[in-house]
Amino acid sequence: MPRRRTSSSSSSTAPRNRTPQPVRVQRRTVGDVLRALLAFAALLVLLAGVPAALVLFIGWPLPHGVPSLDWLRSEITVSTFLNILTVVVWLAWAQFTACVLVEVKAALSGVGVPGRVPGAGPSQLLARQLVAALLLVGATAAGLTPGLSQLGHSVEGGQKPAVAAARQTPGLFAQQQERAADGAAAVAAQASVAAAHADAAHRHGDTKYYRIQPPEGRHHDSLWEIAQRHLGDGRRYKEIYALNKDRVQPDGSRLSEASLIRPGWIMEMPGDARGGDLVEAPGATAGVPAEVRRQIADYAGSGDRARDGADAHAPGGTDTAPAPVPAQRPAADAGAGHPAAGATATTTGSADSFGLPEALLGAPLLAAGLLGALGRRRRQALWQSAIGAVGGRRGTEPPTPTGDAADAQDALLVGADPEGVRLLDLSLRGLAARLAADSRSLPTVYAAWLTGGDLHLQLAQPAGKPPAPWRLGQDQTFWTLARADAERLDDVDTAAPYPGLVSLGTLDDSRLLLNLEAVPGIVSLSGREADRAAFFASVAAELATNGWSDRMTITLVGFGEDLTPLAPSRLRHLDSVDDLVETMEAETRQRRGALGAAGYDSVLTGRTGPARHTRWAPHLVLLAAQPSAADAVTLAELASDASRLGIGYLVGTETGELPGASWEMEVTPEGRLLAPLLGLELDAQLLPAAQRRAVVELFVEADPERDPQGPAPAPPFLVDVSEQGRPAVYARLVGPYEIIGLDGPDGDRSALLHEALALLLLHREGVHPRVLCAALWPRGVTDDVRDALLDRLREWLGTDPDGTPRLSADPTGRLVLAESVVSDLDVLRSLYHEATQGRGVDSRVVRGRLLTDALVLVRGPLLADRPEGRYRWLTHEIIDARLPLLVADIGLALSAFHLEKERAEKAIEALDAALNSAPDDERLWHELLRATHATGDGERLRTLAAGLVARGGARGVPPRTEALLDELLPTWRGGATAAG
């Protein structure tokens, strides 16, 4: 499979027509200080003044001794009434005090949504507003909102050096691997910058510099904010990046990504930069450490050398510090030898990309889910058609996709990474099982990175040591599992712990999955309508078909009615936001009550408990249309406790501002996913409109409830079954693999050439070269190896007597075999088609001969002796379901042919032959019962009935078989009881 090309570190400098919302850093104003003072006064009065007034003016309202029975019969006086009212006020004060403590703890810790004080309501809202106003003087407003900015923070005292940690595990966000020691160090750093810049400015005239500041509360410096403050437009961050890219910083590292900057780094600014934080003139250097001045001077000199074209890395140069791995990016060598479960692996030339949509090629988890769901849908349609459940017989040939649908199917085959999905599912369920065995709860997981096949879970907060073979990552909020360890895991019977994980996009070779149901509030998405729709469609399609979840409800509002065929049991569409609010209010109440009744604090606890298989499935809401202000407030209130209940909200917005949004993202016209406040900049995973329609078409065509139009489709390739139709090359696939008419290829490449030929024979409509490569080399192949294989395959197959090559390309670029290359499966299909829709329709003799010849061809299952580890692409095929149905159809037709002439023994012989290849087809057993009954041998019929009962085992006899036995052998139940 092709490995998707990713942008290099320099790609951030490319011009983009994007308009992300600037991150607003709230500065402390006089109004802020005044509000904080008023809030402090109000809290002082409410927390201290109220109890003091009660004690001073009312006294202790409760009796000082144990009341007697006479107390209950005494008259209610004004004093009694005042005492009761005083108790109520004391209780209200205690509740408000609890609310203040809860809000202060949540604001200062920055972890999770504040807990709810029972029955508080308006009291807690008032406490939250007063605490926020008071803390506003010490932190930005963003610091009071739970968000992804806290992900990746380590526990004090347990953090490893940033560079070493980054080599181990990816992080989500920028500027989180290093922290300021304390506030005094930050002030000293600013003074150092001012002094050092003065020395540099003396040498460089009007050049201005800025030093990246340590984090303050939850706020971290970013190039976007620096550009917004000093250049007037956050989008000019690219100019700062261009001036400083790859220049050596004081700590020896380099700026390689615009979103990856660290405290203490120095940034040269454009000439028109303005602001008090900048240094642009010499002077006032007294008292500044010489080391700091030297750092600024050295950095300024590195800029001169860069502009002069000097190579800082040239032999003999003074710059020998290695460039570290960026702290927030997965290490590039994290899984050498293993493709990421988020990147396709086949390298192909551009000519072979013709017609295949890149969005599906670059979404391996989404492609694997869609491909698996499509296969299940087609198998279900085949079986329902076989038993005549809907509309009549469609035959065993599903419709062959054409046009955009065919291209989409090829892209799914090339891009899918089913092994990556399997390992992800195995890893998550294995983690849940091990935690349950240790009587530990599942930790809250905000996100996951897939890097080189390794899995990194990012926790909301430290959760102790992970169970083996998991290990801690760069700090205690990261749990990591190597691919090699995941491959050794066994299947476990436990519920999917994190079904809400969904792919957002990629950063180089790493894929980010966000756990939507764990978000502490609403996730908002801004951008152009078409871009938002493509992102929403990708999220909905992956959630509906992914392989790491069990049950799930996905509600689509404002889009996606056409997507429901992908998973009718999961996807539902609502017409309006009003319907959504009504639905989610009811479900939120129900889930809160269910959790309380079960005694669980969250759905994660329930998923490892006794009820894990029946409850606590997530409900994810995707609202593409921007809600009104009132609806947004309502949704924010519902989402405030949603993560505990297993409910997630992704809401689109046109303006980029949504009330109550905890995490804000933007998708750009260039396909980038941005979240400046969170430090995210990814290649977004999208499903554009044209590809969405093509994928939906595949599912609609395979819908088992869809009435067939016209006669059953003919096989894609019909063989001349007369004596004159002998092929030049004949391959036997039904049973052991054998080729007649060709010399064996070279021993080392024989297995690969045989597998390639088998794939082409099973797809007479043509195979895209990229599909062939992805099937033969799931982990990737280079162009030269691929081209060499195709050359050998053409040479091995040779040419027909007229010089026509037996392997060629059709007008769409797909590889097709000549009509002179035939398989026994082609002959089998052609014989049955000719017997039932061709010459056999008008000639009984011809029909009998054709059906008999067809049944003789069946020697066993498809490719019965295929070597282990090869032909894995057969898991994407439905030939394993089509071939038994075809054999059963042939056996049933031949049985009917013999029973017309009352040749019951011949009919039984045909049915027995078909059952050897299709033992689970209930239709064959029914016909065998009828044929045996036609012999008039009661004992033989009873023996067959007893065999059917024994075959059913604990499941019993199927209802239709039971009804037929009642008709043909009314006494069969007594025989079954006696046999039992």
Task: Describe the model.
This protein has about 1000 residues and is an alpha/beta fold. About 45% of the residues lie in helices and about 10% in strands. The chain is globular and about 110 Å long. Mean pLDDT is about 75; it is low at about 1-25, about 140-170, about 175-205, about 280-290, about 305-355 and about 390-395. Keywords: Membrane, Transmembrane, Transmembrane helix, Two-component regulatory system. This is BTAD domain-containing putative transcriptional regulator.
Structure summary:
This protein is of the alpha/beta class. Helix 16 (577-598) runs parallel beside helix 18. This is BTAD domain-containing putative transcriptional regulator.
Radius of gyration: 35 Å
Structural class: alpha/beta
Rounded mean pLDDT is 77
Give the end-to-end Cα distance, rounded to a whole number of Å. Answer: 54 Å
Q: Helical amount among residues, as a percent range?
A: 40-55%
Number of strands: 21
Number of helices: 31
Q: What ranges have pLDDT less than 50 throughout 5 or more consecutive residues? A: 1-27, 138-171, 173-205, 280-288, 305-354, 389-394
Tell me the major beta sheet. Answer: 14 strands, mixed
Spatial ordering of strands, largest sheet:
5-6-4-3-8-7-16-15-14-9-13-12-10-11
Query: Percent of residues in beta strands?
Result: 5-15%
Q: What form results from the Cα inertia axes?
A: globular
